[in-house]
Design goal:
With 335 residues, the protein is an alpha/beta fold. It folds into two domains: 28-112 and 220-333, D-Maltodextrin-Binding Protein, domain 2; 121-217, Periplasmic binding protein-like II (D-Maltodextrin-Binding Protein, domain 2, 3-Layer(aba) Sandwich). 35% of the residues lie in helices and 17% in strands. The chain is built from twelve helices and ten strands. The protein has helices at 7-20, 69-77, 91-96, 149-160, 179-184, 201-206, 213-217, 229-234, 236-254, 259-270, 296-308, 325-333, and strands spanning 28-34, 59-65, 84-86, 103-112, 121-125, 140-143, 170-173, 191-193, 207-212, 220-228. Strand 6, helix 4 (149-160) and strand 7 (170-173) form a beta-alpha-beta unit. The protein is globular and about 65 Å long.
């Protein structure tokens, strides 16, 4: 009833069957922008072994260093990255100025002033005689950039004392690593001190905190991941896999039993001595939500402040641009 196939016919049948079989799709390429580590965890996110079982299977992950969040807006608009890391200052500019109304907030990266964790310090010299923000009238204030989150928080705190910019004080732009020198050289009367620079011996010896970002804003979303809605719809399964691995990594970094390994990872990447990094992922550091959830209420309050300061033309309704269903689904998978 059945005829035996010749070798040539058998080969032809095998090739036909093979060509009809489904092939595994290539991993979805996901490029993410980051500014500075370890505040941005992206370049070392999956360094711990075993935290990213989906990496290289359903998605690939390519961290790209882009040193300012406004440049992230340009990159995601041009299709050069899939994930931008924005903050409460840059996000409304992406929506209103760049017209990226299809951006969706998908995952938390960094929060300021969360329940006893670190908040950005605004510091004066011990010998300055300045005891309150009102004492800064006519003085020079240093921030890392005009229109940044720390700049807006500073202006919000100054407004509480009736001080306006421009007119009542001068703002200069100074990189975070040189803030202490600028203060000690009396080139500025108030500086912005972020981790790790706030723990430098010069500041600890010669300066003190006048107020914090938490004083100004009550808490702030310093960095969160955004992605275009069209990409999410086209690759939802891969995005959820990425977020599952991200939440697993966040939890690993915050597990006290891993702290020595965490310090070692950060030290090797940043090329800084491990003994200077014991603060990372403790309460001396900013907070990352270990479920990946952005605090939308806090972010809404931040955006209201941005509007009140006149940086955007109309209010932003944060809920219209958030899709936390992906990270919730991702976190629910982890046992």
């Amino acid at each position: 009833m059945f005829e035996r196939l010749t070798p040539l016919a058998a080969l032809g049948l095998a090739l036909a069957v093979g060509s009809a079989s489904p092939t595994r799709a290539d991993p979805v390429k996901i490029r993410i922008a980051w500014v500075v580590a370890p505040a941005a965890l992206s370049p070392i996110l999956f360094a711990p072994p075993g935290v990213a079982p989906h990496l290289g299977k359903s998605y690939s992950f390519d961290p790209i260093n882009i040193t300012a969040s406004p440049q992230h807006i340009t990159a995601i608009a041009a299709g050069e990255i899939e994930i931008a890391a924005l903050n409460f200052a840059s996000f409304p500019l992406a929506i209103q100025n760049a017209g990226l109304t299809d951006l969706r907030i998908i995952c938390d990266e960094l929060q300021d002033g969360h329940d006893g964790y670190y908040t950005t310090h605004y510091m004066v010299r011990n010998d300055s005689g300045i005891t309150a923000p009102a004492g800064l009238k006519g003085k020079v204030i240093a921030v890392n950039g005009l229109g940044t989150g720390v700049d807006m928080a500073m202006r919000a705190e100054m407004l509480k004392s009736g001080l306006h910019f421009p007119g009542d004080y001068t703002i200069v732009e100074v990189p975070f690593p040189t803030m202490a020198a600028v203060l000690n050289d009396k080139k500025a009367d108030l500086i912005t001190a972020a981790v790790p620079f706030v723990y430098g011996p010069e500041l600890e010896k010669n300066a003190h905190t006048l107020f914090t970002m938490k004083d100004a804003l009550g808490g702030a979303e310093l960095s969160f991941w955004v992605m275009r809605d069209s990409f999410i719809k086209a690759h939802r399964a891969a995005v959820v896999d990425l977020l599952e691995d991200t939440v697993r990594a966040y939890r690993w970094y915050y597990d006290p039993k891993n702290h020595a390994a965490v310090v070692d990872i950060v030290a090797k990447f940043t090329k800084r001595p491990a003994e200077q990094l014991d603060w990372v992922f403790t309460q001396k550091d900013n907070w990352r939500n270990t479920d990946g959830l952005v605090n939308l209420d806090e972010l809404q309050h931040n955006e209201d402040t941005v509007y009140q300061l006149g940086f955007i033309k109309k209010p932003i309704k944060v809920a219209d641009y958030a899709d936390l269903s992906l990270v919730k689904e991702a976190a629910a998978r982890i046992k």
